[in-house]
Description:
By secondary structure, the chain is of the alpha+beta class. It has one helix spanning 2-29, and strands at 31-35, 50-55, 65-68, 78-85, 89-93, 98-101, 104-105, 126-127, 132-136, 154-155, 159-166. The strands form 2 sheets. The chain has a 7-stranded antiparallel β-sheet with strand order 1-2-11-3-4-9-10. Strands 7-6-5-8 form a 4-stranded antiparallel β-sheet, with no helix packed on it.
Amino acid sequence: MKNKFIYLFYDFASIIMTSVIAVAAIFTFGFKISTVNGSSMNNTLKHGDRLVITAKDNSVDYGDIVIISQPNDYNEVLVKRVIGLGGQTIDIDTDKGTVSIDGKVLDEPYVREKMVVAGDGFDYPLTIPEGKVFVMGDNRNYSGDSRFAAVGLIDERYIVGEAFYRIGDRTLLNRDFSSPASEK
């Protein structure tokens, strides 16, 4: 009887330890969890939303929602949408509330309202250097993003990963948006 209890205890303990190690490995090398702080991504994401993010694979694209650890004046990790990639030219027209990449006005169904704030970081049009990306929040008038000197262009090395699922939701976040570069 005593040996049976020891074997059962050992089996139970080994299952628990294996599970803990497997979950730790998955969240260390495959996925991570991040929390949205603030309203800059409304209505796509809300303050307090918890996101599952993929480990960075060096392939960010237009429309991706990314988590950024680049030092900034806000002293926090940022959650923003990729708008422009290295080598592209971005132009912001606050009179029309539009963003253009390489001369093509973006179709941005995720934007909350017409943008009226151009920021203080750059003069437009701006050619984004290779290895950098231009990011913006979906709630453009209330987002500290690449338009502002406090954030600026994002070095791709500081992109932690891409958000692909909001915990508690039934849909994936990054739907296919047509890349302005593919429409040339």
